[in-house]
Amino acid sequence: MDRTRASDAFNAGSIPVGRSLQQILGLLGFDFMKNLLNKLKDIFSNIKKFVIKYSKYLFPAVALILAAVVVVIALDQRQKAADRKKALEEQAALEQQQQAQEELENAEIPLEETSDEKIRALFNTYYTALSNGDSELLKAQCDTIEDSEVIRLMEQAAYVDYSLQNVYIQAGPREGSYITYCYYQATFERFPEIPLPALKGFFIDTNENGELYIVMRELTEEEDSYITKIASCDDVKELNQKVNVEYNDILLVNPEILDYFIELDTTVSTAVGEKIAQLNATKAAEAAAAEDPDEPEVVDTTETVEEPAEPTVKYATATTRVNVRASDSANAERVGEAMAGEKFEVVEELLNGWTKIIYNDKEAFIKSEYLSMIQSADGQPTIGMLTAKSEVNVRSLPDTNSERVGALMAGDQLEIVAVEGGWCTVKFEGMLAYVNAEFVDCTLFE
């Protein structure tokens, strides 16, 4: 297309040739842009005039605003610096505390022999109660103790005496508490000349009255963790090792003691099991009696004539040293003390676990679990006589581990009721008892 034809094309189009940009913008609908630019120009012009006119007031105000902004920024930075410093100090304190805790956990807590009279008195009383079979005194030294444990300890007391030698202590998990290790000697009735060394650990604490007691309750997690940790200290390990060496040295020279321990364990376990069963039966009977109202007694009006029966006298012997009470309660007045093997006439066996006896010609009470009932010899036929060849024990049952109720000297004689299994059943102080036939001469009637 040549120039002339191009001009004609432009002349014939929608955009006229040769007009200004301002005309084009107006034709395109952008007049508002022009007005906006003019208004902005006027605003900036007015601001400029205002600033020039009031510059002496504006510049100080702006300076104050800038200063305030600077102060705020400075204070903010100062606070952040203080916060950072505090955070660093807290972190350092925490690290120091953790380090101290680690040092404490790794530190050896010293073990030392105590000279504290209160601590020694507590354990002297405890082991005296064990030796004498005094369950009430034993319970008084502890915060709590299971009936089964009391029965076990009291049963053992019939065969062993305790002698406290030393008490070693370590600081407990809190003020007024101690971890203690009692070094004592145990002397068994079959080996009275051979005291055996032993070591037993206890956790003791102080009550609100300032009195020490043995902790028998279940330990808290904190207490258990603390005791486990300090029990692994070198001092404790050395003390344990020392006692173990002493103990093993004695057993090497006297191996028969081990056989005796096996025999004794069986005897004690059997007796404990029987007494626990009796205790549980008594508790069950008491619970049943408390739940069920008393039923009226049915009286049989049928008249019967019976011959008056001969009253059967029953006896019992104390299996251990035990308190004698004025009534059937552990809180009743203590009227005396029965020694192991002491015999009493039985008036009545009560369902609440107590037995009414004759004590110093008066009625009194002893816990049934500490008595062994004896069959009366009244009415038993005599089939012969025995004569002791040497000193020999008289026992409540045909068993060398049964309770000893008396003794015969060489030449003493007793009536024989029966002979069986190497034992003679005899009449002894109004009751049936047993003597080992190996140590007597028996003469049976034809």
Helix content: 40-55%
Instruction: Label the CATH architecture of the largest domain.
Output: Roll
Biggest sheet overview: 7 strands, antiparallel
Taking the alpha carbons of the first and last residues, their distance comes to 170 Å
What is the helix tally? Answer: 10
Return residue spans where pLDDT drops below 50 for at least 5 consecutive residues. Answer: 1-18, 297-310
Secondary-structure-based class equals: alpha+beta
Beta-strand proportion: 25-35%
Describe this structure in words.
The protein has 446 residues and is an alpha+beta fold. The chain has four domains: 3-53, no CATH class; 112-258, Nuclear Transport Factor 2, Chain: A (Roll); 314-374, SH3 type barrels; 384-444, SH3 Domains (SH3 type barrels, Roll). Helices cover 43% and strands 26% of the residues. It is built from ten helices and 19 strands. The chain has helices spanning 3-12, 21-27, 31-53, 55-106, 117-132, 135-140, 147-157, 221-230, 234-253, 256-291, and strands at residues 112-113, 160-171, 178-188, 196-206, 212-214, 314-318, 322-325, 334-338, 343-349, 354-359, 362-367, 371-374, 384-388, 392-395, 404-408, 413-420, 423-428, 431-436, 440-444. The strands form four sheets. The protein has a seven-stranded antiparallel sheet, with no helix packed on it. A hairpin with a 5-residue loop joins strand 4 and strand 5. Helix 7 crosses helix 10. The chain is elongated. The protein starts with a helix and ends with a strand.
